[in-house]
Amino acid sequence: MFEKGLLKGKRILVTGGGSGLGAAMGRRFLELGAELIICGRRLELLEVTAADMREKQGGKVTAARCDIRDGAAVDAMMDAIWREAPIDVLVNNAAATFIAQTEHLSFRAADAILAPTLHGTMYCTLAAGKRWIEGRHKGVVLSILSTSTITGRAFTVPSAMAKSAVLAMTKSLAVEWGAKGVRTVAIAPGAFPTPGATGQLRPEGRDQGWASRNPLGRAGEHSELANLASFLISDAAGYINGEMVIQDGGAHLRTSGAEDLLQWSEAQWEQQRAARAKV
Prior knowledge:
The protein has helices at 20-31, 43-56, 71-84, 107-135, 148-151, 157-178, 195-201, 222-233, 266-277, and strands at residues 11-15, 35-40, 61-65, 89-92, 139-144, 182-189, 244-247. The chain is built from 9 helices and 7 strands, in the order βαβαβαβαβααβααβα. It is globular. 45% of the residues lie in helices and 14% in strands. 41% of the residues are buried. Strands 3-2-1-4-5-6-7 form a 7-stranded parallel β-sheet, sandwiched between helices. α1 (20-31) packs across α8, α3 (71-84) packs parallel to α4 (107-135) and α4 (107-135) runs parallel beside α6 (157-178).
């Protein structure tokens, strides 16, 4: 689909790059010639993923342990990265969410979602942006959001709030940083199933026929998201700034994705709360 060297010479940092969609995007970036840094909290997972990428996709892959909820840790990671060379692209992929009746959320539970999804994304963006601007180095920030930024979404309210705030950041920084050589863009994916997200958002008892009711009759393929991300961070998309591209097969035109949960009984919700308490 793309020229093999589309991302040649690009140094890319992907948060939450050790698994799921972050790893899928990272693999595609490598195939297109990029150098990759993947960060997350679990170094062992990152190193296993990085080794597998080197073997299967080739290229240079570095694993960096970082809890992006900690601004000082983010700054330290960026200092370490910059000592070798600046990155050219930041992909804000790391996030957290789970389904819950909002009135039952504790402050701690809400913060567990807001901390990586909003604060971590902001910390990484600020850390990269200030270094790009000080060094007069062009950069791109790609944030992975959600169609809840358009529809809202019951039962994942902290996530919808955080993703909407990151969209506001994307639009705001497009104006503030555009003239300084920094583009900000976003993708709002629909259903691209991963083991982690499926376990949190589609536990036993939820509607299992959701994919067939997508206007296209299926869920998304990881390669489709990875290809869109590759285009948006490439020089070929150099005139796209401050925009969020929706990639959900048209699902947001039909549903917010939470309607089936309105029919759940209190017993089902109690079972879900009990399952989360064991995690």
